[in-house]
Design goal:
Blueprint lengths: L1 H11 L26 H13 L5 H8 L10 H8 L9 H7 L16 E4 L10 E7 L2 E6 L2 E6 H8 L3 E5 L7
Antiparallel strand pairs: 1-2, 1-5, 2-3, 3-4
């Protein structure tokens, strides 16, 4: 019933215009409220969709960037762009530090769309590394070969990077 109520709310809030009536003494058509005017409904609908198996927005955006060469050496920028942000943190290490209170390490329960953080070391120039969880032990991130999807355990084995934790996706865009 909650899903039905949310669906009715969303459908009732689509932007639509009242037809213009030239005999209405100059009154302009009025716009109905938009779903974007109600972020709480959008967040609830997004969370229900994700619970039903849909990919969170961050992951959808990450998949759209697979193969892109513009993010080589810019893993934090890649992740921020999938979240609809830009220039929030100068490095993955800075982002990890800022989100320390939200960081989790229960990897068996890591949701798709989570931001994964790796420790700074020589392989990443001391800047750390970050990716987006694609589910089923997979991640999408900026690599030296462009944006790639990879197995998390194979990444750890090949790069020797230490995983610090993850931050689950936030509602709305996620």
């Amino acid at each position: 019933e909650q899903l039905s109520n949310i669906a009715h709310s969303i459908l009732g809030l689509k932007k639509k215009q009242t037809p213009y009536d030239p005999y209405s003494q100059g009154q302009q058509p009025q716009q109905q409220p938009s779903i974007t005017d109600h972020p709480e409904i959008l967040k609830a609908a997004t969370n229900l969709a994700v619970q039903a198996g849909a990919d969170p927005g961050d992951l959808v955006a990450a998949k759209e960037k697979l193969g892109n060469q513009d993010y080589i050496g810019l893993c934090q920028k890649f992740v921020e762009n999938t979240q609809g942000k830009n220039g929030q943190y100068p490095s993955a290490t800075a982002a990890a530090s800022a989100q320390q209170g939200q960081m989790r390490t229960d990897f068996n329960n890591m949701p798709k769309g989570s931001q994964i953080f790796y420790a700074p070391d020589q392989s990443n120039g001391g800047n750390g590394h970050t990716t987006i969880s694609a589910g089923n032990g997979q991640q999408i991130g900026a690599t030296n070969n462009g944006v790639q999807q990879s197995d998390i355990n194979q990444w750890i084995q090949s790069t020797k990077q230490k995983i610090l934790g993850y931050v689950p996706p936030q509602g709305g865009n996620s």
